[in-house]
Write a structure and sequence with these properties.
heterotetramer, A: 18% strand, B: alpha/beta, 2-enoyl-CoA Hydratase, Chain A, domain 1, 9 strands, 49% helix, globular, binds zinc ion
């Protein structure tokens, strides 16, 4: 099993952003506050075995949880640039360098080809660990290329959204990625290839207002924060506190915005079922002869 | 792929000179009007000087933002009143409500049949509140989609006038799928089998602006801005202080000349000296001429070319390097 | 002016269903309770000159108010039959005979060709005076034929809805008219011909759930009752009183269901403007050489 | 144009005989099961007699209506459980909510890829309330439209199971355009570029039923009804007394045999003696076979034929004479 293999390869993290105070083999679940044995967590698709909390995943772990085996990586040749000479409390190149060092990735996206229950798919996975999964020119370009290549190769596209929104440091260039990804996704639509998005915690801002929500089928992870405007901004607008569960996956299901909430441990099965129904041709698509696996940083 | 040059540095002192010159010209002009004197011999060299100066200088970006918001700046309907005939406003999304921040309908644009889509900020306080200062709810974007369906059906080119600080960040807007509605509008507009010309006439804030911004041509008025986030929004994220908006405006490179350099707009529409609000008729004439010219240029193409033209235009926007 | 001519031809009625107590030349407006000189009412498109109340119109008067001149009638050859042998407090044929005698029309619909500000249009006008404008097989067939003929002749279609709903006495056959009219309207859609509906008081039931609301542009008359379920049924469901103005044209505009509310006296102008914008070809369509005017019963 | 014959008169006394015979057969069958005795020699002639009797008699129409509503009558999901694999329920209209009265999603129908659409009445009280007893709000019809878009995109034939007393007559349903939503669903379904097979499995009330009833073939189960209005609704209009529903049911000619005579359905699907609730597996088998057979018959046509087939089917429904 991929998870098991992954665990042997690397030390998993319960809650990556605040790992400093986490002991090596135990971690505290942010929801139930119980200590969780990290190996159990990894074996459980990073879902708390105690309370079902879905931990955030970086793109590498996500690919392992989502796909049968290793991903044949397409992304990685496109690198971000500081087109605006953007400088705030630090410069954009400094921020990028830090995120690149942390994730071993040029930007907040991993794309490639893989299998889900032996069905070949294209996968585009946002990496929240890279600058909060913010969408800049590279994210837009890689998603667009993945959509186009999926179209050419006759593959369904599975997109995993995880993003705080557009990347401020690229200003209008970042905004334009909403349009770019949308026009590139036509490559799938024209060919009748399924496009399924999985909205994970968090999916907000420009990502919610573009490629993530025009999917044929929208899956959400339990408890994920999903919305366009951020809760803080909304609170400033309405000047009253937000209701419990506002902008959570369950709220969105009730409001008709997502097709289903699927526990991460059932996602592969549900996706395979859907793909077989929507696109029986995927059943016959063979795996590529040679597969290049992503290496951990 | 776009690789913009280094952007210009700002030159506030020169703007000061420009403002003084503009004031002097206005004084002379009003003297000429009130006294009937012919002051052209005095005005002509001053105007030439102004033109040179305006080409040389940049206002600070924050000054531009303020000009885009200044009281009396023409709203979309003020342009429509001057540039169109027979505008028939169509209402409603056929599902929930009629949004007054994003309005539209068929009209004759300087004699050309078009479908208008626009954010309307409102003119007096009551009107502004009714229109949420041009920040649309999901119903607005869904109405836009419906009007785009009609545009396609009846072969009406779309003219979109963008003027919004962004989609409305309300609780109910989220309940009714603000993100979904914007995404759907972007997608629908990209699929239009008619040409589309968009113009940012004031503020172009984030996805709420882009939702009606998928044009074959995207124009921007000289003192309008267009960005992924408002300067105040960026300032409160970066410095936790919206008072740092001027710094954020600089960083965001959100002015018309910036966007031209970045390849995000095709053309900057010159405004009357000092801003569109100082001569609405002249501003309208400039906007009307530019939009009409682009409509006429696009008119000869086929539906497939309009679709692919938009797709190619947006497909290549972005800045990155390839290894 | 058509109205003037009409007045000389026939005695207009303020409120046809309760005309017994109305003196010959004066009528009482049901809204403002003022006495109105009937000639003034007719000259004012049957809008109360005092309060603006829009009186209900039979199809003949409606055609005169809507069109430049006389209508070239298409409808009239299709007659209702009692396919179900429907019998309640009286038989369906008895009901039909009474409505036919009252209106001089085989059923609740008048269709034909006319001009609006010199633009040729097809018009389909429901007749509320015939059995409450109920939609049975004849209404469905005539609307379908009008749509198809408009398609063939390249004419926009203007439909005036006025109906209490489907005709119970034709049961499922009546229900099927909702589908029949919908498929026939494709004749216009395919050719890019405009279809505009005008919802008048009342437009309810099956008419609201079919042809009347799939128009390209929906116009409503001020104050018209428009809805799917009847107010009485809704009140039974929710067990509380309905808000003021519920299901009125103004309510529907606010809820995004109609494009505009247009005073009857401005309708010709607004329609002509819309037709010129949506379908400039209508400007060039010549009037037919010979026109057959509908005669009053 | 359809010119139906005179409809049959009802024969209640004979129905009584039929019911007694059915009871006797059931008794013998259960005795056979509980005791292990072979009672076929006794049962065979009784069953033959039953078949003859059922062919000869009609229940009153009101009896049919009651059978269509009887406790334990299978709901749509009970058929889906028996006839499909891999049903993936898709939720939401992407604009306001997820309606639980009208549900759907892709599935394998006896091995065939289809898009399911159905009214689901609910099984226990709580479920029934949640689903408003199968009476959909506008969101349900808008979800149906969305699923039809997906059906077209992925070439999935539509199977619609109709079971509703009508669209929900609520205040909010009116606010959100119940009539508009139904009209849109009818129009969208007429435009499907895939085949559609509809089956009225219980109640087919008015526009709320027709909204998902625009099939290339429309089938009805033996004890289902389909009408422009419920018997109670008709009774309260005609006699101002919903207790007159039995008389209204007679007048409305709303039973399966009536509808076959009127040309409104292609086929009546026989139910197990006494009604589908007495043998859900057998009822499901009959429904499954009929729907599959019609799907298979339609499979060879082109998208244009599916569209025109539906259009021609509905274009000719109605009864009138021409002068
Ligand atoms: Zn936990
Ligand atoms: Zn009055």
């Amino acid at each position: 099993m991929a998870l098991d293999k992954f665990f042997r390869r690397r030390r998993p993290q319960v809650n990556p952003p605040s790992e400093a105070d986490t002991p090596d083999l135990w971690g505290k679940c942010p929801q139930c506050k119980e200590n969780v044995y990290l190996r159990d967590l990894a074996l459980n698709a990073y879902v708390c075995p105690n309370c079902g909390f879905h931990h955030r995943l970086g793109a590498t772990k996500r690919a392992e949880v989502l796909l049968d085996g290793p991903i044949e990586i397409w992304s990685g040749r496109v690198h971000p640039v500081d087109a605006l000479n953007f400088r705030d409390t630090e410069s954009y190149p400094e921020r990028l360098a830090r995120a690149q060092a942390k994730t071993g990735r040029p930007d907040a996206i991993l794309t490639g080809r893989g299998q889900i229950e032996n069905l070949s798919v294209a996968a585009a996975i946002m990496d929240f660990e890279f600058s909060g999964g913010s969408m800049g020119s590279v994210v837009g370009e890689e998603i667009a290329r993945a959509a186009e290549r999926a179209g050419e190769e006759g593959l369904p596209l599975i997109l995993v959204a995880a993003s705080g929104g557009a990347r401020m440091q690229e200003s209008a260039l970042s905004l334009m990625q909403m349009a770019k990804t949308t026009v590139a996704l036509e490559a799938l639509s024209k060919r009748g290839l399924p496009y399924i998005s999985i909205l994970t915690d968090p999916t907000t801002g420009g990502v919610t207002a573009s490629f993530a929500t025009i999917a044929d089928v929208i899956v959400a992870e339990p408890g994920a924060l999903i919305g366009f405007a951020g809760p803080r901004v909304i609170q400033q607008t309405i000047r009253q506190s937000l209701p419990d569960g506002f902008q959570r996956a369950e709220f969105l299901l009730e409001h008709g915005m997502v097709d289903m909430i699927v526990d991460r441990r059932q996602q592969r099965g549900e996706l395979a079922k859907l793909l077989r129904l929507l696109h029986p041709a995927s059943v016959g698509v063979a795996a590529p002869a040679s597969v290049q696996s992503e290496q951990a940083p | 792929m776009t690789r913009p040059n280094q952007t210009r540095t700002t030159q506030t002192p020169t703007v000061q000179t420009l403002r003084e010159l503009e004031a002097r010209i206005r004084d002379l002009e009003s003297t000429a009007v009130s006294t009937g004197q012919d002051l052209d011999s005095a005005l002509t060299p001053l105007r030439a000087q102004l033109t040179r100066l305006r080409q040389q200088v940049s206002m600070t970006r924050w000054e531009r933002v303020q000009l885009a918001r200044i009281a009396g700046r023409p709203t979309a309907l003020e342009y429509v009143e001057r540039l169109t005939e027979d505008f028939v406003e169509l209402h409603g999304d056929r599902a929930f409500g009629d949004d007054q921040a994003l309005i539209g309908g068929p009209a004759l644009w300087q004699g050309r049949r078009v479908m208008l889509l626009m954010q309307q900020k409102g003119r007096d306080t009551k009107d502004k509140i009714k229109r949420r200062f041009g920040s649309a709810n999901p119903e607005g974007y869904r109405k836009a989609v419906r009007l785009m369906d009609l545009a396609d059906k009846f072969g009406l080119p779309v003219v979109a006038l963008i003027d919004t600080q962004g989609a409305y960040p309300g609780l109910e807007a989220e309940e009714r799928g603000q993100g979904w509605a914007i995404a759907e509008s972007i997608q629908r507009m990209s699929r239009l089998r008619v040409p589309a010309v968009c113009a940012v006439i004031g503020e172009g804030g984030s996805g709420g602006a882009l939702a009606i911004g998928i044009g074959n041509r995207v124009l921007i008025m000289e003192n309008a801005w267009y960005s992924v986030i408002s300067p105040e929004g960026a300032a409160s994220i970066i410095w936790k202080d919206s008072a740092k908006a001027p710094e954020a405006a600089e960083a965001l490179k959100l002015t018309a000349p910036d966007l031209l350099e970045l390849g995000i707009v095709e053309e900057v529409i010159a405004e009357p000296t000092g801003g569109a609000h100082l001569d609405v008729d002249a501003a309208a004439a400039a906007l009307g001429e530019a939009v009409s010219r682009h409509l006429d240029e696009l008119a000869g193409q086929s539906p497939e070319e309009w679709v692919s033209g938009r797709a190619e235009r947006f497909r290549k926007l972005g800045a990155y390097r390839e290894s």
